[in-house]
Amino acid sequence: MKSFYKTGLRIGLISYRSNPHCGGQGVYIRHLSHALSDLGHQVEVIAGPPDPLLNAGVNLTMLDTLDLYNPENLFRTPRIDELKDPVNLIEWLDISAMGYPEPMTFGMRVKRYMKGRTKRYDILHDNQSLSYGVLSLTRDLPVTATIHHPITVDRRLALKATRSFYKKLQVLRWYSFIGMQKRVARRLSSIITVSDSSKTDIAKEFKIPESRLKTVPNGIDLDNFFPLDHVKKEPGRLIVTNSADMPLKGLYHLLYALKGVLTHKEVSLTVIGIPKKNGGIENLVKKLDLGRHINFTGRIDHQRFVLEYAKAQIAVVPSMYEGFGLPVGEAMACRVPVISTTGGALPEVAGDAAKLVPPGDAKALEKAIIELLDDEKQRENLACRGYERVKREFTWEKCAMRTVQVYREVIDDYHGL
């Protein structure tokens, strides 16, 4: 009998960096695991530090690592006894040579943990580590993976953002794990991705047939992102949520747009995030003399996040590329009108409920901001359409149900059913 007719599945969700504050992958693990559990499946998240935030009913197994990216003790020197573990030694040597070994070494740790445990699971779901260690487990049980977007895009934009030959070499060294991820992805029978745009780009960049890529859009956390109708909008206030110094996120272009807008009207920009000290964003803010017009919030909780959205007249998503675009959906869930670029999958999330501009075009961003600030009726129209769109199209329950359909196909294919 096909697995489709089996009730609850035993699911191992594997994710090397799973805290929501680390980015969209952590958000994905938290809400997908919760939604799968609510559907009656048994879910275990197998993760590395920093610890993921999980809901009740989801089991967590933390794998010991050197945790060399801990901001409170960044790139610490490991103790001698720690380096007796060969995986730790490989990790430390690679980091010392300016590499990023976490996807590979996390896979080694998963393989070690799974020894003698594979019968606990009906399927393993890898959250974009795409490591040799995880691939080796396909001999023992069904494995699928999510690729949120091709990381080759990040590498290409990072190379384009610097003129320094030395920094280009650093970028290439950092992204040296991409070769492994491509090879592993090509060996998996079925891969989940979060948008049709990502599906097309992954197929092209990783040389994978599109027929093996399954589009399952993310959900939006409607329990934590919602309108606060009692909060008064602050005139001219813009908001952006941003990993500030990543070229991929496009904040540089928004800063130039902001400078242009300020020649027409008084505005302010709230950035949910914090710039790298003496980094490109901090230096550009000084160069453009924008300091008094910008507030960097740093890391904030959901209550403050929603409040910041409620105060804003417009949310701006200036990304050069997104595999999905959680910031668009989260702003819409708070009933805030959105200006977004057309980078990657952003138009799929925005639909007809946002004002769209080309990525990397500061002048187009400037024009769109001025037009929307001057048009209250359009702001209200976009806010309402966006809110209804998110509630209708992007729930985590729907995401989990579609994910389970992929699981069952992978399981049936593995067992030859």
TrEMBL record:
InterPro entries: Glyco_trans_1, Glyco_trans_4-like_N. PANTHER family: GLYCOSYLTRANSFERASE WBBK-RELATED (PTHR46401:SF2). Residues 232-388 form the Glycosyl transferase family domain. It comes from the Bacteria. This is Glycosyltransferase. Keywords: Transferase. Residues 23-223 form the Glycosyltransferase subfamily 4-like N-terminal domain. One of its GO terms (biological process) is lipopolysaccharide biosynthetic process. CDD domains: GT4_PimA-like (cd03801). One of its GO terms (molecular function) is glycosyltransferase activity.
